[in-house]
Amino acid sequence: MVKLRLKRCGRKQRAIYRIVAIDVRSRREGRDLRKVGFYDPIKNQTYSNVPAILYFLEKGAQPTGTVHDISKKAEVFKELRVNVNQTN
User: Fold this and answer.
1) How does pLDDT run across 47-80, given as a tens digit for each residue?
2) What CATH number does the domain located at 1-85 have?
3) In what order do the strands lie in the sheet with 62-63?
4) Are 77 and 85 in contact (CB under 8 A)?
5) How far apart are the C-alpha atoms of 27 and 88, rounded to whole Å?
6) Confidence bin at 16 (pLDDT 50/70/90)
7) For the chain, which residues make up each domain, given as ranges?
8) What is the reported pTM?
9) Is 6 left (phi over 0), alpha (psi -120 to 50) or beta?
10) Residues β-bridged to residue 9
């Protein structure tokens, strides 16, 4: 199973997180399938590759709680609903 979760990067006391699609069995810094964005909690900046996130969500990937909140703020789920309505 694939999850969308955070992968820690940066230096001590200055963490930056990548949003990655990764196998559930991999550890936090393990090998990811694809990088789909990043999150900087100190500057409160995010970047999301929305088409890549939508691709993994449509394939059945589950976001973690934090990634779900970040994606919700970026309005990714609104685009997911639009894509689902267009295919019906």
Assistant:
1) 999 999 999 998 999 999 999 999 888 888 877 7
2) 3.30.1320.10
3) 45-48, 34-40, 14-23, 2-11, 62-63
4) no
5) 38
6) very high
7) 1-85
8) 0.81
9) beta
10) 16
